[in-house]
Amino acid sequence: MIISFDIGGSAIKGGIARSETDIVPLGRRPTPKDDFAAFVETLRAIIAETGEQPSRIALSIAGVVDPDTQRLICANIPCIHDRTLAADLEAELGLPVLIANDADCFAMAEASLGAGRGHRIVFGAILGTGVGGGLVADGRLVNEAGGFAGEWGHGPIIASAAGNPPVAIPAYACGCGQKGCVDTVGGARGLERLHQTLHDLDLSSEEIIAQWQHGEEKATRTIDVYVDLVASPLALTINITGATIVPVGGGLSNVEPLLAELDQAVCARILRKFDRPLVVRSQCRIEPGLIGAALLGLKAEALAL
């Protein structure tokens, strides 16, 4: 038995995993952001709740492990940022520890148990508050040792004009330190930013989408520009990776008409042609980070035996 954790900025969720088909969620506790000792005790308390001693733990975290230094980059939880977190937790808990990026865990969950089943190469895309992604090939996560593969949300690649007719798009500053990243326009906050730029209107992504679905002119224009901006970098990602399915997670994945528009635009831009949808809604709707971490932990445990 292993225990997987989904570590978010507001909550830590746990789960017991005995096999790929036997993953049971546990409860959630608030995330101690600034106190590492409290962070460790929260994990320890969740482990104790099970009444069993796991053989290892696996963590899904909204951060990236540097494969050279093994240090975690996780700015939204300061007490674990820039730590060799796996080694630190192993010393505290006396258990083997595996850490993976949450988007990678999402991709792993979808490749194994979700929309990516039966596909050799799966690119999991996150369209949530921001943009993320993970790549799975032949059942293996490309980032098993940590790293940045799948991070299609970053890099100065957004078009300077988009939509029909084209409109100028600023190179918005990104939290990663660059300008013009997909992350600045592709998530919910990016959609809101586009609407503000195009129409000088401050609306939530939910309001923009609702107006679009009712045929409102300004919202329709914003979605047209949004799809044009996001489809090209996603199409390039598919061409480079050879992915044959792109499960999408995050809040915007719940808007299936938007995914259909994005799928149509992406399929028109890629080299390989499909007679089926390529960009699809994810199927692991409940805690895919928890599921993905559990799958990675189970694989690591099997290799250790």
From TrEMBL:
The keyword Kinase applies. InterPro entries: ATPase_NBD, ROK. Its EC number is 2.7.1.59. It catalyses: N-acetyl-D-glucosamine + ATP = N-acetyl-D-glucosamine 6-phosphate + ADP + H(+). SUPFAM superfamilies: Actin-like ATPase domain. It is an enzyme of class 2 (transferase). Coiled coil: none annotated. It comes from Rhizobium chutanense. This is N-acetylglucosamine kinase. Keywords: ATP-binding, Carbohydrate metabolism, Kinase, Metal-binding, Nucleotide-binding, Transferase, Zinc. The keyword Flavoprotein does not apply. GO terms for molecular function: ATP binding; metal ion binding; N-acetylglucosamine kinase activity.
